[in-house]
Design brief:
This protein has about 280 residues and is α/β, with parallel strands linked by helices. The protein has nine helices and nine strands. The strands form two sheets. It has a seven-stranded parallel sheet, sandwiched between helices. The termini are far apart.
Length: about 280
């Protein structure tokens, strides 16, 4: 069991979505928080609100796609609070592009944040975490680490990489005080689709806006519910977490037929699109 009160917890991607919900709920439990996000305005608003509620917290404008920025975040955390007890590598972005229309710069942007941001977050904070009696790395992957969809090749790849990296890191840390929890959310009602870089969505929707509307309609889990589920998993010492009925369903399909699950889901999406057209 892992107690939250008094722990120093770092959250990336903290200004909105799951990150903001985690910050609010961990603050209520008495955690001391270092919050990081590239959104300076949103980060400041959250930090001020939590301080008003009595939380000992600070914010650092951080581009998690920049290795040096993450190491600077680790140094700031050490200087402000002392060593971190928990690091939640939550920051993530989305990209909609068929492979034959993929821009290399967009692919590198996504991988730098979704995958390398996790890698650097783990490496930058491990020296601090190793000094704690009990410590935890929480890496946010996706159910898309198991199943893949058209136009999501780079997102799928980044989240599968987070899963594999987390599994290997857990084994490397097995005889230490540092645990690793890998989180696989399904559809969460955040702004990730609205902020996605879109090259061509025609394979999955009739327009970019309809694609965003479809995500909003299908994402049935709130950030607050996702945060509650993650905190419960942290406290109970779990190593793998699925969030949402959709994630559990897709994981079931993947386990049932790994080579067919993605095709089944793609065809389901096509049928839903046809029905929506009337």
């Amino acid at each position: 069991m892992f107690a939250v009160r008094g722990k120093v917890i770092v959250i990336t991607g903290a200004a909105s979505g799951i990150g903001a919900a985690l910050a609010s709920k961990l603050a209520q439990r008495g955690a001391r928080l270092m919050l990081a996000d590239i959104d300076a305005i949103g980060l400041q608003a959250l930090t001020v609100a939590l301080r008003v509620q009595g939380c000992d917290c600070d914010g650092s404008v951080t581009d998690t796609g920049d290795e040096a920025a993450i190491y600077d975040l680790a140094a700031q955390t050490q200087a402000r609070f002392g060593p971190a007890d928990v690091v939640i590598n939550n920051a993530g972005v989305s990209l909609v592009a068929p492979v034959d229309k993929l821009h290399t710069a967009d692919a590198q942007w996504l991988m730098n944040i979704n995958f390398w941001g996790v890698v650097h977050g783990c490496r930058a904070f491990l020296p601090q975490l190793r000094t704690r009696p009990t410590a935890l790395l929480v890496n946010v992957s996706s159910i898309f680490a198991m199943v893949s969809m058209p136009t999501q090749s780079m997102y799928n790849a980044s989240k599968a990489a987070v899963r594999a990296f987390s599994d290997a890191l857990r084994e490397e840390l097995r005889d230490t005080t540092v645990g690793v929890l890998c989180v696989h959310p399904g559809g969460i009602r955040t702004n990730i689709a609205n902020k996605a870089r879109i090259t061509d969505s025609s394979m999955v929707a009739d327009s970019d806006q309809k694609m965003r509307d479809s995500f909003t309609r299908l994402a049935r889990t709130s950030p607050e519910k996702a945060a509650d589920t993650i905190i419960t998993a942290m406290v109970s010492g779990e190593t793998r977490l699925l969030i949402g009925g959709d994630a559990r369903f897709m994981d079931f399909l993947f386990r049932l037929a790994p080579s067919r699950a993605s095709n089944w889901l793609t065809r389901m999406g096509e049928r839903m699109r046809q029905r929506a057209r009337g």
